[in-house]
Amino acid sequence: MKNYLTSLLLIIATALAFTIKVQAEDRSETLRAINWVENPTNQTHVGRFGELGPYQFRPATWRMHTNKPFNLAIRRQEADEVAVKHYEWIKRTFEAAGVEVNPFNIALAWNSGVDSVLSGRVPSSSYHYAERVTNLVETFRQSTNNLAERKPIAVESTTDASVPVVGTDGIRFRILENPPHFEVAAS
What we know:
two-stranded antiparallel ribbon; mainly alpha; 6 helices; Lysozyme; 58% helix; globular
């Protein structure tokens, strides 16, 4: 009986740890995508609606989650802390209202406000915003999956005489049979 309980607790702990990791990855990917859509060039000036920083916080949103001065919104570490708090607030609000928590809905609320999402009155521009965020999240996930699937490249020894060497002026290159391949991905 004791071994059964230990095994059960281990299974529950593993499942909980996996769920927490997946949720943190979802949050991280969603916030990264929001940053890319909101402020892709990392502008530090105040926007036309008073927004500031990597996540384009408005002063009222900033004050919801911190007592720090709003001008700190341009500092990445400060902005990241508030972004996580804001994301979690949106998530808790959706969970309490029975709304699915996913990158699309989080982005809708980020752009148009939680109340507009809950009331079903979201402007079409916010839908386009949420689609862009969701597309970026999927792109990030695919990139992560592609990197995880790739095998490490074996480095040839420089003392291996069987590998041909080319080069001039004291610079020499060994020609590998299976050279590494690089892919350029557009963001």
